[in-house]
Amino acid sequence: MAHRARHPLLPALLLLAACTGSTEESRKEAPPLLTELPRALSPAEIRTVAAGNQFGFELLWRVRNAEGEVNLFLSPVSVSMALGMTLNGAQGSTLDSMRVALRLDGAPIGEINAGYRNLIDLLQSLDGTSQFRIANSIWGHSGIPFLPAFLDAGRTHFDAEVRSLDFAAPATLTVINDWVNTKTNGKIAKILEDIAPQEIMFLINAIYFKGSWRLAFDPKQTGDAPFHAADGSTQNVRTMRLDPELHRYSSNRDLEMVELLYGNGAFAMTIVLPREDRSLADVTAGLDAARWAELVAGLHDREIGLALPKFRLEYKRELNDDLKALGMGIAFDAGRADFYGMADVRPDRLYITKVLHKTFVDVNEEGTEAAAVTSVGIGLTSAPPVLQVDRPFLFVIRERLSGTVLFVGQVTTLH
Asked: What is the rounded CA–CA span in Å between residue 70 and residue 394?
C-alpha cells in the first residue's frame, strides 16, 4: 500500500449562516437544475445501488481499520464493477462468496448483470455539463481457452473491451497501462507494475469524473486557513471561499454535513464533519448504506457561506485482505477457487491473484476531477456562528438522484 498527497488536503471548511446571495454570474452560468431521474430505477438497479453503497461503506471501514488515520480515497463503484465482471466466471461456493462480499447475496446473475448494465447507461447520461465515463476491459493471455459465454457477458453487460495478448511479451504491460492512462484522461498513468508468471487475465474497470461547481469559487477570494490534523499538527493552507448562498445542509449531535452540486445537480460532493467531541472513527464506525440514506434524507436548503481548501490526492491499495474480510476469501485460494466459468483448465484452477485499486482527486475553484481504476488479476495454479472544519472529516462524491456513491474519502492530516 502507498498513499501520498500532492497538495494540502481539505484543511478547513467554513459554513456561515447568512442572508446575502452568491455571485449572480455563477447563478446565470449554471444549467437548469435536474430534480428527478429521466426514468424510474429498475428493481435490478435499486438492488445494485443499495448493495454497492453498503459494500462501499463496509470497504471504507475495513480499509480505515487497516490503515488508521491516513488520507484515503476509494471508488466503491469501480471495485464493485470489476468484481461484477469477474462474477460471470465464478461458480459454486466461489460465486456465492463473491455475491456475499458485494452484498448481492441471493441475487441471480442475470439480475446482477442487468443492474450493472442499466446503471452504466444511466450514470453516463445524466449531466451533459459534467464528464462521467465508465470503461471496462478484459485482457486474456493468448492460448488460454477462455469461454465465449464469459467474454460475451463482459461485452454485453459491461461494455468491456476484450483483448487477447501474449502476457510473456514486454509490450503487453505497456498496452494495458496505456489503456488505463487513456480512460482516466492521464490522471492514473498505470495500474500494473508487472505481470506475474501465473497471471493469465486482468479484468479492469476505469472511472473518470470531471465536474464544474454549480456555484464556482472566485480565485480572488482564496486565502489561508488552518487545519488541525489527526497527528496534532496545524498547517495553514490555501482555502477557497463562497459568499452565502443556498446549499443543502444538515446537522445532528454527532456531525454536520454540507452538499456542493456540480453542473445540473446530478452529481454532488457531500462533506461530513464530526462534532468537536466526536472523531472521524466514531462517525465512520457506524456508517452503512441505511445510515447514509438517513443522513442524506436530512439535508435541507440553508443559506450559508463556504470556505473549502483546494486539495489533490492520489491513493493506491491492494484490496485482497479487505475483500477476504468481507467474505470472498475462497476466490483468492489457489486450491479451492472455482472460476471454471472463465475457462475449463482442469485439473488446474483459476483464482484471483490480486485486486489493485488506484484513485485520484483534485478539488479547485472550478470544480473536481476524479478517477479510479480497479484491476482483478486472475492466476492459473498448478448558520449564525462560524463552523470551522479544522479537524479530520469524510467526503463523498455521489450521483444524488439514484443515490449511487461513486467515491468516498477521508482527510485526517496534511503533508
From this structure: 12
Quickly tell me which residue has 456513491 as its cell. Answer: 405
Q: What H or E segment, with its residue span, contains residue 197?
A: none
Which amino acid is located at 411 in the chain?
A: V
pLDDT of 73: 96
**Residue 198, amino acid:** Q
Q: Residue 193 carries which side chain, given as an amino acid letter? A: E
SS3 255: strand
**Residue 227 to residues 10, 13, 151, 361, 410, Cα–Cα distance (Å):** 8, 9, 49, 19, 14
Using alpha carbons, select from 130, 129, 131, 126 the residue that is nearest to residue 35.
126
The model's pLDDT over 197-221, given as tens digits with 9 standing for 90+, comes to 999 999 999 999 999 999 888 999 9
Question: Which residue type occupies 228?
Answer: H
3-state SS, residue 208: strand
What's the chain's length in residues? 415
Phi, then psi, of 96 in degrees rounded to 5: -60, -45
Rounded CA gap, 141 and 154, in Å? Answer: 16
Q: Answer positive or negative: Cα dihedral of 383, 387, 393, 396.
A: positive
Tell me whether strands 234-251 and 223-228 are parallel, antiparallel or unpaired: antiparallel
Asked whether 291 and 272 are in contact (CB, 8 A), the reply is no
Q: How far apart are CA 99 and CA 86, in angstroms?
A: 11
Closest by Cα among 103, 120, 114 to 290: 103
**Amino acid letter, 262:** Y
- Strands 386-388 and 199-212 come out as unpaired
How many other β-carbons are positioned within 10 Å of the β-carbon of residue 342?
A: 26
CA 376 to the chain's CA centroid: 16
Computed over every residue of the chain, the mean pLDDT equals 88
Tell whether omega for the bond before 347 is within 30 degrees of 0, i.e. cis.
yes
At 369, give phi and psi (nearest 5°). Answer: -120, 130
Helix (H) or strand (E) holding 166: none
All domains of the chain, ordered by start, with CATH? 2-35+212-311+386-411 (2.30.39.10), 74-211+315-381 (3.30.497.10)
Of the listed ranges 30-34, 47-51, 280-284, 384-388, the one predicted with least confidence: 384-388
Other CB atoms within 10 Å distance of the CB of residue 39: 9
- Give the helix ranges, DSSP H, for 102-147: 109-123
User: If DSSP codes are grouped into helix, strand and coil, which group holds residue 381?
Assistant: strand
